[in-house]
Amino acid sequence: MSLTEKDKAAVKALWAKVAKSADAVGADALSRMLLVYPQTKTYFSHWPDRKPGGESVKKHGKRVMGGVALAVSKIDDLTAGLLELSELHAFQLRVDPGNFKLLAHCIQVVLANMFPNDFTPEAHVALDKFLANLALALSEKYR
Amino acid sequence: MVEWTDFERATIQDIFSRIDADIVGPAALSRCLIVYPWTQRYFGSFGNLYNAAAISSNPKVAAHGKVVLSGLQLAVNNMDDIKQTYADLSVLHSEKLHVDPDNFKLLADCLTIVVAAQMGADFNCDVQAAFQKFLAVAVSSLRRQYH
Questions:
Q1: B interface mutation test: which of A18, A32, A117 has the most B CBs within 10 A?
Q2: Where is each Globin domain found (chain B) (predicted)?
Q3: Which among A76, A100, B13, B144 would be 20 to 30 A from A63, CA to CA?
């Protein structure tokens, strides 16, 4: 399900509206993921705390959204653009790729919650495809 | 037997008393048909599903969205035995409608997103967790009679 030109335009248009709130989106999405899908906490046992809205979560949410911003800028070739991040996730972090869609879902819930008028069904389908392709690019180096 | 905390029970009742079923049902179903277009396979008789605008304004989609939400209301009213409450519905979806049960999760995700858009700040992490747990139980009960 690769991205059409229409999808890319829709993603960039949505990103233009939400980018300035990226840190808040990231923190909220990550908090929700850790609570709604508790198995994801297993990747963060090294944090002082995994509480929704805590410092560790906020800092990491910001980092994750930095990755999403990078992906938007490299939307024409996600595999090449996310190569280093893929190597990081494959060889060091080793996050089971099944988890990427859990975070993607939470990001979309937050966007619907914070930007209900912008997260139209058309924007939703484009973003869903984009996040799925992002996850695929991130898992590229796994095996 | 599903264990519900007091918070979860109260949250589910609260959500369903606050949302407008006639808006949320149609919105969730049309979003599902738009975001996951392969789900349109079950609605060949619904007429024009050609694009997002057509789907969002299709009266049969809207009517069916309300049917789906009233099905969920049934679960809300019988939270302590959703499995039994949905036994016939499960047989219906399997034997008569032949719906791939993986699709139930797709609709559940769209419903979560529509409710998140409606409820704003009140749809916090804990509320989302309760809502998704409820939907997971509904989905699991709907899958139960498939064989």
A1: A32
A2: 3-147
A3: A76
Domain coordinates in residue numbering, chain A: 5-139
User: What's the distance, Cα to Cα, between the start and end of chain A in Å?
Assistant: 21
Amino acid at B40: Q
A24 and B CB contact within 8 Å? no
Query: In the 8-state DSSP scheme, what is residue B4?
Result: -
Instruction: Round to whole Å and give the CA distance between A125 and A135.
Output: 15
**ipTM of this complex prediction, to 2 decimal places:** 0.86
Domains and CATH numbers, chain B: 6-146 (1.10.490.10)
**The architecture CATH gives domain A5-139:** Orthogonal Bundle (1.10)
Task: Report residues of chain A scoring pLDDT below 70.
Answer: none
- Shortest Cα distance, chain B CAs vs residue A87, angstroms: 30
The single-letter code of the amino acid at A93 is L
**Euclidean distance between CA atoms A31 and A53, whole angstroms:** 6
pLDDT at B103: 93
pTM over 0.90: yes
Give the pLDDT score at A67: 97
Report the alpha-carbon distance of residue B141 to residue A67 in Å, rounded: 38
* Residues of chain B contacting A119 with CB distance shorter than 8 Å: 113, 117
pLDDT in tens, B100-133: 999 999 999 999 999 999 999 999 999 999 999 9
